[in-house]
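Quick review question:
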C-alpha cells in the first residue's frame, strides 16, 4: 500500500511539473520578452497561443542563414493556416540589432507574416537552452516542446512533425493581426544600393522589388521591374525581382544581385529587357563551383556584384553572402567559379580559397585592381589581391563597435556598404548608423562627420567627385553629403 502511495505521489509531482512547464513557456512568451511584441496590432495573448501548434523561430536579423529560411516559414504558414502560430523570437547578436524599432523594420523588410518578440536580454533564448541562429522549436497544442531544429533546410521535417500533431489543435480564438506599414505610399522602401552610370543614378529599391533610375536632381526616369515579388524575365514593366541589392553597369548592361531570388540577373538598358543569367529561385549549397555554366548553378543570397575594371579579366565578381564566398562570372564563357572563401564562416586570411569569410556584402575595386569587400558578420573590411586575402579592419565574428584608429583597435559594426575613391575607402557602417573612412595610405579608420539628420542603418555609400551619397535604408531615402560644407540633405524624388 505504501508503494502505491509513493507511486501516486511521484505521479502527482510529474503532472504538476508538466503543468508548470506549460505555464512557464506560454506565460514567458505572452509577456513579450524584454522588448515586447512587434509586427502585430496587439500583444499576443496566452489564449491565442493555447490550443495551437507554435513554431518558435529564434533569429537575429543580420544573419543571412536566418534570412534564407524565411521562405520555409512562409510556406508553413500557408500550408497550416491558423492551426499553426509562428512566433519570431529575436535574440540579437549585435548591439545595433537590439532596438525594437530596428527589429520591426527588419521584420517589415523581410515581409514576415507573423508576430515577433524582442528577446534582447536572451531570457527566452536561455530558458529554452537555444545556442545557435537560426533555431526553430515546435511546441504542441499543450505548450510542450515536440522537436527542435538548428540551421537551414528543415522545412520537410517540420511539416511532417506538424502533420503528426495537427489533430491535437483545438482553438476558436482568432489569430493575431499583423501591423500595417507604409510600403505603398513611400517612393522608396528599404533601398539597398546605389550606383552611378552615364550621369544617371540607379537605386536598388529592395522593398519594392525593383530598380529605379534617377537624375542628379532626383527625377525618376526609369523603373525596372513590376514591383511584384517574383522571378520573371521580360521587359521593364513585367519583369519581377525579389529584394534586389547589388548592381553594376558597364555600357548598356547592368548586372543585378537578385538576393531574394538567389539569382544573377542582366538588365539591358538599351533594349529594355531583363534576363536571368544564373539561379532558379532556390538556395544553392555548392561551395566548389569551378567553370560551371551559369544557367546550371544555384546561388545563395548574392549580395553585390561588380564588373572587374581590367578588361583582360572579362569578368564580374559576386559577393555570395549565403555561402561566405566570392565568386566570379565569366562574361565571355558565361560560367561561374569560386575565387575566395572556403565556405566556412569566420575571419582568417591567407590563400584565397582557404580563407574564411563572413557574409561578404559589398564590393569595390581599387586603382591597382585590388578587390575590397565588406565582410558584414565579422564587421570587417578585407581585400583580395591576386590569390591572397588580407584584413584591414576587423578581428572576429563577435568583435564590433564604433572605434577609430588602426588595426586591430579600430572597430565597425556590421558594415554593409563601401566604395573606393582615390586612396580612401568610404564605408556605410550600417549598425553604427555612421559614415566611416579608411585611409589606405595611413591605414587608419575615422568617422566621417556630417551636419544633418541621423541615419538609420545606411546600407550603401557612393563617393562622387563633390559629394557622398548614402543609402539611408531604414529611413527609406537617399541622402547627399556635400564634401565642402559637410551638410547632409535628403534627395527628394519626383516622377
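Suggested answer, residue by residue:
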Amino acid at each position: 500500500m505504501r508503494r502505491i502511495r509513493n507511486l501516486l505521489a511521484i505521479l502527482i509531482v510529474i503532472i504538476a511539473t508538466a503543468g508548470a512547464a506549460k505555464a512557464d513557456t506560454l506565460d514567458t512568451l505572452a509577456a513579450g520578452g524584454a522588448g515586447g511584441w512587434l509586427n502585430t496590432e496587439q500583444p499576443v495573448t496566452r489564449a491565442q497561443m493555447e490550443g495551437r501548434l507554435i513554431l518558435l523561430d529564434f533569429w537575429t536579423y543580420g544573419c543571412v542563414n536566418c534570412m534564407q529560411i524565411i521562405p520555409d516559414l512562409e510556406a508553413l504558414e500557408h500550408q497550416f493556416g491558423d492551426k499553426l502560430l509562428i512566433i519570431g523570437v529575436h535574440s540579437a547578436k549585435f548591439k545595433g540589432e537590439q532596438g525594437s524599432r530596428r527589429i520591426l523594420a527588419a521584420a517589415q523588410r523581410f515581409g514576415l507574416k507573423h508576430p515577433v518578440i524582442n528577446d534582447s536580454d536572451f531570457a527566452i533564448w536561455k530558458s529554452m537552452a537555444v545556442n545557435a541562429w537560426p533555431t526553430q522549436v515546435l511546441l504542441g497544442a499543450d505548450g510542450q516542446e515536440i522537436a527542435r531544429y538548428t540551421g537551414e533546410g528543415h522545412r520537410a521535417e517540420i511539416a511532417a512533425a506538424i502533420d503528426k500533431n495537427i489533430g491535437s489543435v483545438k482553438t476558436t480564438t482568432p489569430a493575431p493581426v499583423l501591423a500595417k506599414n507604409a510600403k505603398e505610399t513611400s517612393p522608396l522602401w528599404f533601398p539597398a544600393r546605389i550606383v552611378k552610370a552615364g550621369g544617371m543614378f540607379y537605386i536598388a529599391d529592395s522593398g519594392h522589388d525593383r530598380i529605379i533610375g534617377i537624375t542628379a536632381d532626383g527625377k525618376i526616369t526609369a523603373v525596372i521591374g513590376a514591383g511584384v515579388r517574383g522571378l520573371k524575365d521580360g521587359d521593364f514593366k513585367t519583369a519581377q525581382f525579389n529584394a534586389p541589392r547589388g548592381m553594376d553597369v558597364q555600357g548598356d548592361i547592368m548586372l543585378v544581385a537578385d538576393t531574394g531570388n538567389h539569382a544573377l540577373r542582366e538588365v539591358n538598358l538599351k533594349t529594355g529587357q531583363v534576363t536571368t543569367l544564373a539561379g532558379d529561385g532556390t538556395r544553392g549549397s555548392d561551395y566548389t563551383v569551378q567553370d560551371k555554366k551559369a544557367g546550371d548553378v544555384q546561388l545563395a543570397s548574392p549580395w553585390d556584384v561588380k564588373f572587374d575594371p581590367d578588361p583582360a579579366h572579362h569578368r564580374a565578381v559576386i559577393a555570395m553572402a549565403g555561402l561566405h564566398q566570392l565568386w566570379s562570372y565569366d562574361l565571355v564563357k558565361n560560367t561561374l567559379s569560386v575565387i575566395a572563401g572556403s565556405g566556412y564562416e569566420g575571419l582568417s586570411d591567407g590563400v584565397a580559397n582557404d580563407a574564411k569569410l563572413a557574409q561578404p556584402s559589398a564590393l569595390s575595386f581599387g586603382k591597382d585592381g585590388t578587390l575590397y569587400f565588406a565582410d558584414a558578420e565579422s564587421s570587417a573590411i578585407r581585400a583580395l589581391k591576386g590569390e591572397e586575402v588580407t584584413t584591414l579592419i576587423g578581428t572576429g565574428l563577435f568583435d564590433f563597435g564604433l572605434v577609430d584608429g588602426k588595426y586591430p583597435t579600430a572597430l565597425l559594426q556590421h558594415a554593409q556598404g563601401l566604395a573606393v575613391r582615390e586612396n580612401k575607402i568610404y564605408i556605410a557602417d550600417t549598425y553604427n548608423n555612421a559614415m566611416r573612412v579608411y585611409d589606405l595610405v595611413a591605414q587608419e579608420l575615422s568617422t566621417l562627420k556630417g551636419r544633418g539628420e541621423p541615419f538609420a542603418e545606411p546600407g550603401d555609400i557612393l563617393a562622387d567627385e563633390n559629394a557622398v551619397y548614402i543609402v539611408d535604408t531604414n529611413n527609406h531615402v537617399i541622402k547627399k553629403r556635400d564634401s565642402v560644407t559637410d551638410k547632409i540633405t535628403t534627395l527628394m524624388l519626383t516622377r
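Why it works: Confidence is low (pLDDT under 50) at residues 1-23. The chain has two domains: 2-168, 185-490.
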